[in-house]
Structure formats: C-alpha cells, structure tokens
Amino acid sequence: MTLTKQQDEAHAGLAGVIAGDSSICLCGAEDESLLYCGYSIEDLAASSSFEEVSWLLLHGELPNKKELEKYKNALNQHKSPSAALIKVLEQIPEHTNPMDMLRTGISFFGNLEKDPEHTDPKELSEKLLVTLSPMMLYWWHFQQNKARIKLNVSAHSIAGTFLELLHGKPPSPMHSQALDVALILYAEHEFNASTFTVRTIASTLSDYFSAIVGGVGALRGSLHGGANEWAMKLIEQCGSPDKAEKTILEMLGQKKLIMGFGHRVYKRGDPRSPIIKKWAKKLAEASGESHLFETAERIEQVMLKEKKLFPNLDFYSAVVFHCLGIPTDLFTPIFVLARTAGWSAHYQEQHTHNKLIRPLSHYIGPTHRPYIPLEKRS
Amino acid sequence: MTLTKQQDEAHAGLAGVIAGDSSICLCGAEDESLLYCGYSIEDLAASSSFEEVSWLLLHGELPNKKELEKYKNALNQHKSPSAALIKVLEQIPEHTNPMDMLRTGISFFGNLEKDPEHTDPKELSEKLLVTLSPMMLYWWHFQQNKARIKLNVSAHSIAGTFLELLHGKPPSPMHSQALDVALILYAEHEFNASTFTVRTIASTLSDYFSAIVGGVGALRGSLHGGANEWAMKLIEQCGSPDKAEKTILEMLGQKKLIMGFGHRVYKRGDPRSPIIKKWAKKLAEASGESHLFETAERIEQVMLKEKKLFPNLDFYSAVVFHCLGIPTDLFTPIFVLARTAGWSAHYQEQHTHNKLIRPLSHYIGPTHRPYIPLEKRS
C-alpha cells in the first residue's frame, strides 16, 4: 500500500505488469511474432492441425505420428454427451446467450466427473474438447430449430465435427481446413483476460472445470471474445466498401469504439491477422460473397489511415466464420472451443509452481466513520 | 516485457501489486483495521445485520430504516427457485462438491434472466442472494436425505432462512445471530483471489452471473474458501487440547501447511478473528462442545509460539459453523452466501471506471524453433 498515486495509475488494468512466468506463449516481443511453445504461428497455421497444436500446448512438444494418432483416438472416444447433460441443456432457455449456455453446460459436465481435483487436467481437457461442439450444437438446434439432432458424425477432426453438427452434413475439405486454421490461431494468447482468469482460479488450487468456466465468463465480454460478433454486425451493416468508409468515418467522428482493431500487446500489427485475412478472401470468393471481404478490407484501410490501428484476429475471422455458414451468435463459442486448449495448458502450468494470485487495491473511500444506529439515520 | 528477472519475481502472485482503485474495503492499513465503506468491522458485527451490510457495500452508505425495510422486503419476494432450476439441481449427482453444485446452479439461475447485461446488478444481486440458501439446501437434502424439502420459511433474515432450511425448524435467536455475524465478517475482503476474479471477468464487460460464477470457482480452492473446511477436519481429528498440541508439532516438523493461519494482508493479526472467536466460545459452551473450542484455542497457542502465525477468520468460523449444526461440506458454500454481497459491489464498481484487466507474462520457454513435419518427428 506504499505506491504513490502515479505508480498506482500505471497498474490500472495491470497494463504492462508481469504477473508470472510462462513457457507456453510468446507474443508482443520486439519482432512482433507469436510463438506457441517456441513454434511460429505461421508454421503452425500452414502445416499443423488444431489437434496437434492442442497437444503441443499441453506437452510443450509437437506430437510424433503415434502420439498424435493416440490423441485423436482419445478425442473420438467421448463423443456423445450423457443423458443428464442433454436434460440440463434442454432446460436452458432460447433467449440465453450461447456463451452463458456453455458456462452452465461446462459447469454441469464437470459435476459429472467423480474427482476432478485429482484427475490429470490433460485427461479432463480431452473429454471437454470433444464435448464442446456436441454441447453447443445440440442446444443450438434444440432451441433454434426445435430439433433433437443426432450426435454421431463422420468427421475425424474437431473442426470437421463442429461444421458437420452445425450443417447436418460433412463439410468440404476447404471449409474444414479454414475452421481448423481459425482454431489454431485462437488456441492460445498468453495472459489475456480469460487466461489470466483461469490462472487466478487455478492459483487457489481450485479444480479444472471451475477455472475453465471462469475463462468462459471472461471471454464472453465485448472487450474480449465478443469482438468478432460485433465486427460481423458492423461489416454486414455496412454492406459495401463505400458505405463502410462513410460509416466508419462517422463513427470515429462520434468517438465510437470500433471493435476488432488494435491490441494491447501488439503495437505494429497482429501476426494472426494476415493469415486469417487470406482465408477470408478465399472463402468469400468461393461463396460469392466477395463484397463482404471488400467491405472489411475498406474498413481496415480507413482505420489504418485515420487511427493508425491494424485489425486484430477477430476482424477477418468474422468474415471466415460467416462464410462457413456459422451464425454470428456462435462466433464466441467457437473461440471457447479453440481457447480451451490454451486455458488447459495454463491451468496445468499454474499448478506446477503455484502461488496464490492476490493483488491489493488502492483505497480511495472514507475512513473510520462513526457508526450511527439504525433509529438515528436520516 | 522490460522488467528484470528480479523485478519479475516480485510480481509472482501479484503480491504487493496494486491492481486498481476501490472505495469498498480498507484492510491491511497501518492500524490493521478492517473497514467496509469506512465503517469498522467491530461496529458492524456488534450492531448491524448482514442485510444492512450487504446494502452498505452496494450503496456506499448505511440504509435508513425505510430503505432497509424495502430491501428486506425485496429479499423476501423471490424466495422460491423456479421449477426449471429445481430440475437442474436434481440432475447434479450426490458425489458433486457442493461448491461445484453452486457453480452450476448460479450459472443456470443466470440463464433464466432475460437480459442480464442490461439489468442493474443491484437487482440481480438481490435475486441471487435470496436464492442461494434454497438452492444449496434443496440440493443438499435431495442428495443426502432423498427428500424434496419445502422451501417456505418463517425466518425474515438470510441467516435465519439458511438455518431453517437446513434443520427444518426456525433457529434460536442466538444461532441466527451467530450466523448473521459470520456472514457480516465474510461479506467482503478487498482484492482477494475470488473478488479479483470477479473484477477481471467484469473488466471484459461480461455479465453479472459470469463474474459471480468465476468468484465461486476461485473461492472453491483450498488456498482460499476451502480453508475453513480443512480447519474443522483438523480440530475434529485432534479432538482434545493435548492431542492437538502433539499433532500440530508433528505436522510442523514435517513442514506441513496448517490452514486457517496467517494472511497475506494482515501481518499482526486478522481483526475478524477475535470477533468470531467470542462466538465460537459462546456456542461451544451452549452446545456442550467446549472441548472443540479448547482444542482450537490450543492450536492457536501452538501456532503463535512456534510459527508466530495468528488465526484468520476461517479458523474459529469452523467451530461456529460446526456448533450451528452445519455439515462441514457446506462451510464454503456459506462463504459464497456472504461474499456474494462483496462480489456484487466489486462487479458494480469495476464497471464505473472500467479498464480491461490484462497483465503480461515473463516468457521462459524456447524461441523460434524450426517446425518439423509430422513424418520426420521421432
């Protein structure tokens, strides 16, 4: 409590404060690169799969062929949610935000585990990763289409399973790969607000599901995971490049916040953005929605010219998800699907050298007020 | 990323780091006092009620007679959980940790709210505060005693409601007051791990229930809310003062951690401990379990002599809860009941001058590893 007011202000939002050691992700270094366990995001997006990346984050090393095969088999073992989970999902109303549905669904899924505190988080994360798509899409179809969908799929990847359950048919290889790349890019990002929430919960020695549920709650906010949904609404609302230019200039004139731009960590550009932008272009052209990509690109140009802000991962991801036929309300739940890999790795790492995360506040209220009995209060 | 290794280590667990301004709670100041909105914990425990304190934390001022009456009436309006919530609670297995049951129950309760993002957190906290006891005790009796209890009570306080639902009859005034005091003492405690979790989630502009559910998850850990359950098991296991002395000395010799002692914020003593200790003595004597109090007191003496550590609030609270006939597994859920008042105040305060809470990590892993294709990995 001895920091001066000036020092205190520097800590608002913990901006620039180092909160612990980690060997999972490097971002915001001098060269503005993004590394998962030392591997560049460009290499991983070009050559690996989400399953490979998820294994990498949990183990610190890329899997060999046998390990990857075993992991994928494990991920295929737990595909159907239990009858109890289905019952709970059916109780969650249609008006519920899908992120809040996931919060309850994951929490209840954890309730079914016999001893989550003494089970290897690697095992729990496998079970959860493979349950997330069936969980969200069962509920989605039940509430939106009043249909109890079948949960068996032919797809052999998490990305493919999601798209097959959403559309009721196997996705094209291009669509499956596009979502796979998005999942890789969203899988991990150092001490962002949701991951830091996961670590704070883990630091009390709480269980895996409590930590993940906290991460979902943090990701739900419009300043975090909600940005891609907001970006999509903006792009759709603009509809054309010229309209976009006019709209953005007007919004900037009114000092409105444009989501999907800038990042607290990257000052010269989000290295994930060029990767997802290529996919956005490819998918928009293939699905005859080039105007959406062009609209997005014009917004990017205006933001760079006017505010010197670059798009972050959320901005062009919105176009990718839209072209994959994913309803906008499910954009942030997909972020959960991907980030569960990173959260699980951070939960595990926090427990290896744990110290309770417990900062202080700077008190600015009144002190030592005399207590007035109820009868004498005006 | 420019802090040296030495500075970085100082930030592990954010110990001593000020993470923001607050006017809710002052603790750990020079005089080792604890103030809620400027009022001393001694005055509040002696003269107010938990409802009054909960109002104080949310409004920054003590309520007058009319305001308190209105608040208590509001708290009495929402007493019965909905049929949907009951259905979900019945799905949660007997083996589930009651904290994990609350995590799901509160999350689902939030799912039933039409628009939690645009509803005043004061209103949501009222609804939640009054639902917590029915929620946990319905499930508790359903699983432990295979009984669907009636949820109407004659009690007019949150403490009384909890005890009446637990025991199936109205509590004595002494018992009701003892729990009320415990709820006051547990209501708020600055930027502890669970409250800081609530604020981190709130800082993404996420909704009230996501933040509270995160708080529950953090509180569940044995380094945080779980300490009082652990303390009770130790006191019961010792059973007598002499046995306690022997056991504690043995445990210290084996360098085992004794829960319920010391505090990161208080260096010379937790001001809540003397207050709850008096109640522990009174209740233990009244219920003919003086040996438990004496056992606890001997543990206190040994810890002070051997480790210069004082008991924190959790230690004697364990004796109080036990003497009120509360099963040990419900000690931490009671902590939730109390702390929901403080969490709600912090959620609200975080949103008044919000800044995203997003620290950095100190990267200690490998950098720029060449990517090896799957086929070539050994």
Please describe what this structure looks like.
2 copies of one chain form a homodimer. Chain A is mainly α and 378 residues long. Chain A has 2 domains: 25-222 and 333-352, Citrate Synthase, domain 1 (Orthogonal Bundle); 227-323, Cytochrome P450-Terp, domain 2 (Cytochrome p450-Terp, domain 2, Orthogonal Bundle), CATH 1.10.230.10. Chain A is 58% helix and 4% strand. Chain A has 17 helices and 5 strands. Chain A has helices spanning 5-10, 41-47, 50-59, 65-77, 83-91, 98-111, 121-144, 158-167, 173-186, 193-203, 208-219, 227-238, 241-253, 272-286, 290-307, 313-323, 331-352, and strands at 18-22, 25-27, 34-36, 39-40, 360-363. Chain A has a 3-stranded antiparallel β-sheet. In chain A, strand 2 and strand 3 form a beta hairpin. In chain A, helix 7 packs parallel to helix 8. The model of chain A is unreliable at 1-7 (pLDDT under 50). At the A-B interface, strand 1, strand 4, helix 2, helix 5 and helix 6 of A face strand 1, strand 4, helix 2, helix 5 and helix 6 of B. Strand 1 of chain A pairs parallel with strand 5 of chain B, so a sheet runs across the interface.
- Order of strands side by side in the largest beta sheet of chain A? 2-3-4
Mean pLDDT of chain A: 94
Q: Count every helix of chain A, treating DSSP H or I runs of 4 or more residues as helices.
A: 17
Distance between the termini of chain A: 35 Å
